[in-house]
Amino acid sequence: MNAVSDLSVLDGTSVVVVGGGFGGxxxxxxxxxxxxxxTVLEKNEQLGGRxxxxxxxxxxxxxxxxxxxxxxxFEDFFGYFDRTPSDYYELTRLDPHYRIFFKDGDRVDMxxxxxxxxxxxxxxxxxxxxxxxxxxxxxxxxxxxxxxxxVYTDRTKLSDFADWDVIKNARGLxxxxxxxxxxxxxxxxxxxxxxxxxxxxxxGGAPNNTPALYNLMSHVDFNMxxxxxxxxxxxxxxxxxxxxxxxxxxxxxxxxxxxxRGREEAFVTRTEDGREFxxxxxxxxxDYRHTEMDLLPEGKRQYDEDYWQSRTYAPSAYLLYxxxxxxxxxxxxxxxxxxxxxxxxxEKIFDDPAWPDDPAYYLCVPSKTDDTVAPEGHSNLFVxxxxxxxxxxxxxxxxxxxxxxxxxxxxxxxxxLRDRIVLExxxxxxxxxxxxxxxxxxxLGLAHTLRQTALLRPPHHSxxxxxxxxxxxxxxxxxxxxMCLISGQLTAEKMAERMA
Length: 500
Description:
There is one protein chain. It contains 16 helices and 19 strands. Helix 2 packs parallel to helix 16. A hairpin with a 2-residue loop joins strand 3 and strand 4. It is of the alpha/beta class and 500 residues long. Pathway: Carotenoid biosynthesis. Pfam families: Amino_oxidase (PF01593).
């Protein structure tokens, strides 16, 4: 199990946590276990942040994250509190892990059987089966060393990387270069490169701007497996909330914060309805820019608007939540639909923002695994198209894109959904901004670019307001549900370190 620093110095303190996403829930649990009095103020009607649920007419959708990856992180989190994930939810390993439709008519399944996957790679390119094995060996080493020395350890200064233990363990890691450069060393076939890079969507990056270190995600994918928790990711939220309540955390939903004032041992956090919450410390799991620019007095901000404008944000998303009559036999629980050349789509996210004409996208059908998420005789399906943050989001644009996406699904998967839809909701840039106060409507936070990784991300503590801390996807270790769980630990450790 990952070791956690001594947090006992937090005993007897009071903390307000702004935002009930995974980072906020994690931080709250660590603080409460250490003896702090913790109150979580959540803007929306339910906890979970972007892992909200939409329930309508017998359908239940995970509105945001839907992949359960890195099970060891969840085991470490619950294990710290002498629990296991199975105390709160059960896991089903998916087989196949996912299906990919390439838009030239090709189709491939990635499965739990590594030998079968090796044979699939070999079929595309002579020698690729052996290269697949070598790639995963490298990914596994990067994962083991990266998690211990760069993910669970928050290195906020250049001098932290001069530590001999870091230098010794970093030898041979893929610390320099992009994912595109790294993958090209192993595979020539563009489809094999795409298979090894699709997880970049979860990191909010592109092959040419994400550090090669993140090849570790292939170890997560192929060696550790893809799972489905009972109740979806919302079921994991329920488990964390139950744990928090057992530890004494007070949760308040429908409590949007509009002001944070004060300093260490003298904070007041105000909500829009005029309530005031007094505490020794404040932790924000809200959007980092929103916290600084909208909740703090002008003189108490670490960064100005120019800084936030200069950042590279992870994609937003165009989402369709669909209740569909009948089965969708061509689709798996997780399905990816990819152009054979996806460079244009990434360019329209990061280089020349526009709605992509030939999108790469993701389909999730949890009703393949869980019969509680849709009425009998129906399928629960959502579509996610990564798009640039900050795009114009109008009803007319959504309607045009809806037609484009449904046509594309029919053409490239063989599932024509258009006359079978009994329930439909969309979610896009403006909704991310409105519901989550997300800067530019990003669906994830700050992208994991070469210039926004590790110590180049905003810190866990404010350098202007003593006693104010941050957690979640803008901080280290970064984007994704497991990373936000770990961010909660790092934030609690930073609080203890600065109080000692």
